[in-house]
Write a sequence for this structure.
């Protein structure tokens, strides 16, 4: 629904695991590399623990996708399988031919023969078991017996257990200690930090085809990080609903208002909002108390003045009362702010961050965007069609582009920045270019010298001829 509005080619925050959207930050990439090493080196039982929605299934899909061809994988998604049925389930996944009434011993013999054949071919077999915390202890014990299948030098079967923290509790039980002793590697998927969440959001947007500055404001990211608890499934749900809320208001940036709407519409967000509301009530009470103290001070000062006593006027530094905060009492610079106002003679209020986000950036005497558009038109008319430039970023919003140009002007020469209008998915779009180069080699060399922050936008090269064709579509 909102994909064309934000210049997306596909949904960026679907909760169905898609390996094209695997995020290697938050230690996920390191865990994936370690798992691949452990499996290919022939270690025994491996355990991966993470909260609900932390990305275990995505990690499992990535393993199946990246493991070499010599590794054959079996995926067991049903944790409630009975101990007498688990061998049949594995044999079924491996497509082993067995009579319908085959008993446990027969299944084990056929399975061992199959594994020995694969070992002779230089191949390995690995079993991925999802939701292992829900597996009966007797079934877990049956899984442990499978790890006894081995040659003199190698294990014939690799086992990877994916589970929630309750899996660790089960493994600590005395009756299952033999399985615990067989675990050679343990990995934990911890929740994403606020910085991780910011990188995760823009990574998913880029993977979905977005090209431009971050769609989510800092306060919006902070609210998503706190309400989701850093769990990727919750982040996906909140981000998707927040984008929909921004689209419904015809806005091209997601603010705390849109995230708040997403939280209200999510089951797991209600408790977070209750805590936020409680903090806001506490902040309101503090503001009233401060206001009362201030009024009392003024009344007392006036009484002293009437008695002929000279009283020094209180000095109020308005700057310390003008910081804007979200409903959670957090300013855009990350500091906790309790109240805001402009002195005790005015009504104390808590300003919303959306006011700050909607305020136009202070401009120079002329409109920076219109000036760069005009310069670009002149520049295009003077260049050869083979001239190469670096396409930095883009935006659907004029105001957002003005802010971006102001920011870019602090990092590079404004005279080398060019802006032109075109259309993306039938919507007006602004694109920023940097520099003029005679050939692609010179442009690529310049692109490698761009600041890290700009390279994260994945800039690419464009020719003046191609740019002219794009601008003609806007006419």
């Amino acid at each position: 629904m909102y994909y064309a509005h934000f210049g997306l080619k596909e949904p960026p925050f679907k909760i169905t695991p898609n390996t094209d959207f695997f995020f290697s930050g938050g230690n996920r990439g390191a865990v994936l590399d370690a798992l691949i090493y452990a499996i290919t080196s022939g270690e025994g039982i491996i355990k991966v623990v993470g909260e609900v929605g932390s990305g275990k299934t995505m990690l499992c899909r990535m393993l199946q996708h990246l493991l070499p061809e010599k590794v054959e994988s079996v995926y067991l998604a049903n944790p409630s399988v009975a101990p007498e049925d688990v061998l049949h389930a594995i044999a079924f996944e491996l497509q082993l031919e067995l009579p319908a009434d085959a008993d446990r011993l027969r299944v084990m013999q056929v399975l061992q023969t199959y594994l020995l054949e694969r070992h002779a071919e230089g191949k390995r077999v690995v079993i991925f078991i999802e939701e292992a915390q829900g597996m009966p202890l007797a079934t877990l014990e049956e899984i442990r017996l499978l790890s006894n299948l081995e040659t003199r030098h190698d294990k014939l079967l690799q086992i990877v257990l994916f589970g929630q923290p309750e899996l660790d509790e089960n493994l600590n039980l005395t009756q299952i200690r033999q399985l615990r002793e067989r675990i050679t590697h343990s990995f934990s998927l911890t929740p994403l930090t606020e910085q991780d969440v910011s990188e995760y959001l823009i990574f998913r947007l880029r993977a979905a085809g977005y090209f431009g500055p971050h769609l989510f404001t800092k306060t919006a990211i902070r609210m998503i990080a706190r309400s989701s608890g850093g769990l990727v499934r919750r982040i996906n749900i909140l981000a998707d609903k927040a984008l929909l809320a921004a689209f419904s208001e015809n806005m091209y940036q997601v603010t705390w208002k849109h995230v708040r709407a997403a939280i209200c519409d999510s089951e797991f967000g209600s408790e977070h909002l209750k805590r936020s509301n409680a903090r806001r009530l506490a902040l309101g009470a503090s503001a009233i108390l401060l206001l009362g103290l201030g009024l009392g001070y003024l009344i007392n000062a006036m009484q002293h003045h009437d008695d002929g006593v000279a009283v020094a006027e209180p000095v109020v530094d308005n700057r310390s009362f003008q910081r804007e905060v979200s409903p959670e009492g957090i300013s855009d610079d990350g500091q906790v702010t309790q109240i805001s106002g402009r002195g005790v003679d005015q009504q104390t209020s808590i300003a919303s961050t959306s006011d700050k986000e909607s305020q136009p950036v202070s401009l120079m005497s002329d409109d920076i965007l219109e000036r760069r558009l005009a310069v670009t038109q002149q520049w295009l008319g003077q260049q050869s069609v083979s001239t190469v430039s670096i396409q930095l970023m883009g935006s659907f919003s004029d105001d957002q582009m003005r802010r971006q140009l102001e920011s870019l002007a602090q990092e590079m020469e404004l005279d080398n920045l060019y802006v032109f209008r075109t259309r993306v998915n039938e919507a007006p779009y602004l694109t920023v270019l940097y520099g003029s180069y005679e050939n692609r080699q010179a442009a690529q060399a310049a692109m490698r010298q761009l600041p890290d922050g700009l390279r994260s936008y994945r800039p690419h090269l464009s020719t003046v001829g191609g740019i002219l064709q794009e601008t003609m579509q806007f006419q």
